[in-house]
Predict the structure.
Amino acid sequence: MAARNPLKWPGIEQLGREFHECLAPALEQMTSADGAMEEEARHGLAQLDAWLNAPCAATVKIDGTNVGVDNTGLLVGRNTVVEPGANYQKVDVWTLLQGYPEKVELFRVELQRLAGEEVIAQAMLYGELCVNGKYDYAEVGIFKGWLCFGAMLVPGAQDAHLATRRLSERLRAEGFNVRAKEAGVLVAPSPQLEDLLVRLGVP
């Protein structure tokens, strides 16, 4: 039985639902008899304000499946480790991603330079493995290819919770779209990430 993926890509928030859940308490209380807003409603409005005023990056959604590769040569699918030499979703991912652990290490080193004293112990690039042939993926040359959409970083400090927060703050100050998560720091699409991936030859 395949080992579990130790650094899963986090689930994506359902923005429409989250938006409604933040706004609903405020609307309900604003239309009540006294119109006073409680802490929950004020917090929800503050969250909406942060979203609406945050930088935004949009990318094309590719219909495929998650595959990650880290700086040590570990390959993972959405939930499990891909054993050396094994195919994943009928694709020879080991041949497809040959040489990528070295690129991920260069990615880690560059982010480490930007992070200063905040040690990055592990970096994993995640991408979409284009296994769906329903669209024009074969015509445009990406069918059974891999396209990076983000990364996960694991800090090396003993206090992982604090280190994750500090690392995300450092990289955010450098313009990256990052967020502290339970497993590590999520690096989402941004012009800074795209520029770095292009320089490293990562599609």
Observations:
- The mean pLDDT is 89.
- The longest helix spans residues 15-30.
- The helical segments are 15-30, 39-52, 93-96, 100-115, 137-140, 160-173, 191-200.
